[in-house]
Amino acid sequence: xxxxxxxxxEVDRYLRGDMSREERAEFEAQIEKNPELKxxxxxxxxxxxxxxxxxxxxxxxxxxxxxxxxxxKNNRYPWVKIAASLLIVITLGFVIYQFSKPNYDQLxxxxxxxxxxxxxxxxxxxxxxxxxxxxxxxRGETDKALTKLYATSVANDTVTFYLGQALLAKGKxxxxxxxxxxxxxxxxxxxxxxxxxxxxxxxxxxxxxxLLKLDQIINSQSSYAQxxxxxxxxx
Amino acid sequence: xxxxxxxxxxxxxxxAVITFYxxxxxxxxxxxxxxxxxxxFAIGKNLSLKKIKKEKRMVLDDEVLEFNSSVEYxxxxxxxxxxxxxxxxxxxxxxxPCKSILKLFYFENFTMDSIAERLDYKNENVAKTQKLRCLQxxxxxxxxxxxxxxxx
Lengths: 235, 152
Description:
Helix content of chain A is 74%, strand content 0%.
């Protein structure tokens, strides 16, 4: 069946609600009698419904997308909140930890003094380029001193001890500790080596080893016993 | 106490907005006797109850369904026949100008005059003839599709 031009305007007016009550009743009666009109009415009515499906469907889709977008936005916040809470907890924890632990840095600054150069005291006429490692160290030229100490063919407790001194000055605490540890008890540098080892533990935050070393010094006849005791009290 | 999931609530809200839009568009709603919020809530409540009834197969008192009856609106069924759904798919394939003409006339309820103006037709009659051709085209596409479907 083709869409009949004669009936379409009537059908349209009915579907769009442009008919009066009487006209509607008349039209509905006509539908029952006229199969051609009935078919056209049904097809046009379904077309109208089809357009509604598409248009309202598009609107629905738009609303759903907005909903999804809003939910995603809201979902982002919990993570920000969790992250923020964690950050606060970590920061607070760190601050509390900093306050509760003994101030090792302060103790170190208080007690650390470079060991004097007892090997080759500088005399005023010493030329800059003829200075030996110990003199360089004394002048605070730690890098040059280290290079010289590493380069030397001499291997004895003096070299080892001053290497430890240079490393300590450079802030290489672990390496310094290793040097001080290797100083034998019969060495003249044994007592200061023990002392500087304990100071290095203040920097490595190794409380267990620090206390052990301090006790060793305190219980020995070391000239550093008094200072060790004070550090221990300061912890 | 009846509860809807968040997804269902979102769905109901969307349908309420669509119902509201449809009522305004069709001219069934010309003035608001209450705020839009109240209106949307009234529609939403009814849609929610319908949904609960449908899902839980619960029998609710008509009394419950009738609250907020002061807000009047035309319900959308949101239910269509298979034939209507098929036609909806075919309309999408129809292309312009047919898709636009049919949409403007049967969905937006524009007059033929304003459709002619909008789509640059010479006059109302040219637009009318075009609309008729479009209906014919749609019908033949629908019937051919139906035949092909039968063949399968």
